[in-house]
Design goal:
heterodimer, A: 569 residues, alpha/beta, Rossmann fold, six-stranded mixed beta sheet, 36% helix, B: 290 residues, 12 helices
Chain lengths: 569, 290
């Protein structure tokens, strides 16, 4: 403890001179298509024991900015800066040999996807040991001990056993922690973490963030790259908001988050869904299409969906049967939204596939509007399939790669309408999802993520469904695009009276969208009820853990609130 | 382009790099030149040939390549260059037909192995595995032995011999398409099974075959020539390239060009067809996820 306080004190003392100074940084890439600048005039300082967060959406240049600090901008890139220094050394003059001395020893890097960043054929322990060996750290037994200590330090349980396992044998959270361990193996005083928690479940995310926070308290300087303001709010002392390679806003974290000066930052913050955003627009500047008059929802005597005692098991590679869905029951009324939240492997997607009758339940049944649905033959179900539509996480794989937007929609309408009516219907569908008619001839591959997801929604709406199953439908989108899609979905539900089965791992999105929530864990429903009840008074220990792990924007966590060094600038 | 980009607010992400026009590399230019020359030779040999392919001139027998006879002459004094040109049609036709036979069989067998009922699919799958394990040349030799040597036997032998390999590719493609997200989406839309097979599974699964066809022509010509070289092809007066190899074999020490030059022509065509096929495959990939 004394050591920590001493280190913190030194960190304070050093606050006057930054470890890293960047002035007027520009990065461009030269390809056969010409020269393109992806980062323009970015300046910042990084001080000891502090965290600088670089926030932006995909394509904003945040990763490139961080990579210039370790000389990894890659082939064909051009870095210009008035100043780019690490502890007084001019990084602009560095050759590859000197960069290698910087990487790992002076600056550690944690990359986003641990599965692709780690050698799949080598035990993670050997991977970490190699970093030590390359920098001539100790002898072999000492390195071995160091690896175990490191894994333990980043919160990997049973480190000696885990060190012998290959990345594929570890869960996503453990892999990410192994990557952090290799980044801090040589005790660099600066660590760059590029989206370290993206693709992790909330509870694991919280653990990884806690590790980063502990490092910061030990005096390590952090550069945290993220698209997620809620993640950043927890750790950052300073925030730099990038958009299209330019700094939109930068300053102390609390000021930026509490009183953002720039409209873009404000819209980013407003776009984060959660309990407080219910019944409000997330992207007010996004113009929703004019909808037809709200349709009267037919009498809700009979629920739209009744699922009773659903059970589904799969054979796992070992031969044992693994219960993916265990006794799941729920009802969904017309025009309402049932949210299913859970971490990966909780059985939420399997539940969706059972409702869609893409899989046959081992036991239990689903009834749609009071009629048998899963228990009947496919030939009898097929004519009724138009009543249920689906939007999946990655629309690109759900579209025939040969087809244009128009062909996709025409195919969905096939058999339902005469050709003349079909054209009008396609135009109408595009208006419903606020897509331009010009896009009709385009292949989905050439559309942006948000446009693709709107095409997927248009296809789902094509046959006037009563229920849309949305399986992680916004999970792959940037927060501002996600906000537009969520706004659109809410408006469509009001106008068309369609029911949603909304599946997500994101508690904020679930809270924003749902009328009722099911919390799933290991295939079973552990808690269900009204969103506010679940979020404010969770009953089940697992729900409490989930809600506790949620990174919120509206309540800055203790770590950033009590951090002493926020003032002296 | 600007009109297309002006999507509703905030929809468009960072501009994508515009696709550059594929540049013609020297290798591609060479491949195109080889194929164009041989196609012309196949269609209109008289235009390219310098001599009659069958005119004997025993005074000029077994001459090495010269200005008068670019590829030299054979044992009867016939101009080898002209014989190669006149042989192009038959050689290419054998290649194209063999590739066609091979691919038709491959599509039928591969699709059945992927989509047939449980018994049929596993039966066809088993046959494919066994046939694939069997060396293609051996299979072809067996057929020639049964049917007797002729151009059509060559076509059938090579077509059947190479089909199992392609059938396995087709089966893998069909299986991948069947478990794809878009087929699942079509099921969820309530489309009938036959329609899904015809409109989505087959077109997507068979698309890569366009390129494979080009690759397979080159390969078939090599196989057919091997058969001819063993004396199991077209009868001697023909100047099919495999037959040229076979005829030149007797003079391999005195007049090596009689074997080397037709061999090089076959290699050049096979390389050109392979490189164009690869190019075609890349061009067709654009619809898939990068």
């Amino acid at each position: 403890m004394t050591l920590t306080t001493e280190r913190a004190a030194t960190a304070q003392a050093h606050d006057t001179e930054p470890r890293i100074r960047v002035r007027d940084l520009s990065v461009g890439f030269t390809t056969s298509a010409g020269h393109r600048e992806v980062v323009r005039d970015v300046s910042f300082d990084l001080y000891s024991g502090r965290c600088l967060a670089i926030v932006g959406e995909s394509g904003s240049g945040k990763s490139v900015t961080a990579r210039t600090l370790v000389g990894l901008t890659g082939r064909g890139s051009r870095v210009d800066a008035a100043e780019l220094s690490l502890d007084g050394d001019d990084l602009r003059a560095f050759g590859e040999r000197r960069w290698r001395e910087v990487r790992g020893r002076r600056i550690g890097v944690v990359l986003q996807d641990a599965l692709v960043s780690l050698d799949p054929l080598r035990p993670v322990g050997a991977e970490i040991e190699e970093a030590l060996r390359l920098h001539g750290w100790g002898d072999r037994p000492a390195r071995r001990r160091r690896v175990i200590d490191l894994l333990e330090a980043v919160g990997v349980p049973e480190p000696a056993r885990r060190a012998r396992q290959r990345p594929g044998e570890l869960s996503g959270g453990l892999r990410q922690r192994a990557l952090i361990a290799s980044a801090i193996a040589l005790e660099p005083e600066i660590v760059i973490a590029d989206e370290p928690t993206t693709a992790l479940d909330v509870s694991v995310q919280a653990q990884v963030l806690a590790q980063l926070d502990a490092m910061k308290r030990r005096g390590v300087s952090l550069v945290l790259i993220s698209h997620d303001l809620a993640v950043v709010a927890h750790l950052a002392d300073d925030i730099l908001v990038l958009r299209q390679g330019e700094v939109v806003e930068q300053g102390p974290a609390r000021e930026v988050l509490a009183a953002p000066r720039h409209a873009y930052t404000r819209s980013l913050i407003a776009a984060v869904p959660g309990g407080h955003t219910r019944d409000t627009r997330l992207a007010p500047e996004f113009v929703l299409p004019a909808f037809p008059k709200p349709r009267a929802v037919p009498d809700a005597d009979v629920p739209l969906v009744e699922a009773a005692g659903l059970r589904k098991s799969y054979r796992s590679p070992g031969g044992a049967r693994h219960l993916a869905v265990d006794d799941v029951s729920f009802t969904l009324a017309r025009g309402r939204t049932l949210g299913i939240v859970g971490e990966s492997g909780s059985g939420k997607s399997t539940t969706a596939r059972l409702v869609l009758a893409l899989e046959k339940p081992d036991a239990g049944e689903v009834r749609i509007a009071g009629r048998e649905w899963t228990g009947i033959r496919e030939s009898r179900r097929r004519p009724e399939r138009h009543r249920i539509a689906v939007v999946s996480q990655d629309p690109l794989t759900s579209f025939d790669p040969r087809w244009t937007v128009e062909q996709i929609l025409r195919d969905a309408l096939d058999g339902a309408l005469r050709p003349v009516e079909r054209r009008a219907r396609i135009r109408h569908l595009l208006r419903l999802v606020a897509l331009d008619e010009n896009l009709l001839g385009r292949l989905p591959l050439t559309l942006s993520g948000g446009q693709r997801q709107r095409v997927a929604i248009a296809r789902a709406l094509a046959r006037d469904p009563e229920l849309i199953v949305l399986d992680e439908a916004v999970s792959a989108l940037d927060v501002s695009v996600q906000a537009q899609i969520l706004d659109l979905l809410v408006a469509l539900q009001r106008a068309l009276g369609v029911g949603y089965l909304f599946i997500s791992h994101d508690l904020g999105v679930i809270h924003h969208m749902s009328d009722e929530i099911l919390v799933m864990k290991d295939g079973a429903v552990v808690e269900r009820g009204d969103p506010d009840a679940i979020f404010h008074a969770p009953q089940h220990p697992y729900t409490r853990e989930l809600v506790g792990a949620l990174q919120r924007l509206d309540e800055p966590t203790a770590a950033s609130a009590t951090h002493p060094s926020g003032e002296n600038r | 382009m600007t009109a297309l980009r002006s999507a509703p607010a905030g929809a468009a992400s960072a501009p994508r790099p515009t696709r550059t026009r594929p540049r013609v590399s020297p290798a591609l230019a060479a491949a195109l030149a080889v194929v164009a020359f041989l196609l012309l030779a196949a269609i209109w040999p008289a235009l390219l040939a310098t001599h009659s392919p069958t005119a004997n001139d025993f005074a000029a027998a077994l001459q090495s390549p010269s200005w008068a006879h670019w590829f030299g002459t054979d044992e009867a004094g016939r101009d080898l260059y002209s014989r190669v040109v006149w042989g192009a049609r038959e050689s290419l036709l054998i290649g194209v037909w063999a590739a066609t036979v091979s691919l038709i069989l491959a599509v039928l067998l591969g699709t059945t192995a992927a989509l047939g009922g449980r018994v049929l699919a596993s039966a066809v799958g088993f046959v494919l595995e066994v046939a694939f394990a069997f060396p293609a040349l051996l299979l072809a030799l067996l057929l020639v032995a049964i049917l007797g040597p002729s151009a059509w036997t060559q076509v059938l032998a090579v077509g059947i011999g190479t089909a199992p390999g392609y059938a396995r590719i087709v089966r893998a493609q069909v299986l991948a398409a069947r478990s794809s997200g878009y087929v699942e989406a079509a099921v969820a839309l309530g489309h009938p099974r036959v329609r899904i097979v015809l409109r989505q599974i087959l077109p997507n699964a068979l698309r890569p075959l366009v390129a494979i066809f080009a690759l397979s022509i080159g390969q078939s010509i090599v196989w057919a020539s091997s058969l001819a070289f063993l004396g199991l092809g077209v009868a001697p007066p023909s100047s099919e390239w495999g037959a040229l190899l076979d005829a030149g074999r007797a003079y391999i020490t005195r007049a090596p060009w009689l074997v080397v030059i037709p061999g090089l022509v076959i290699v050049a065509l096979a390389l050109a067809a392979t490189s164009l096929g690869g190019r075609l495959r890349d061009a067709l990939k654009t619809g898939e996820k990068p």
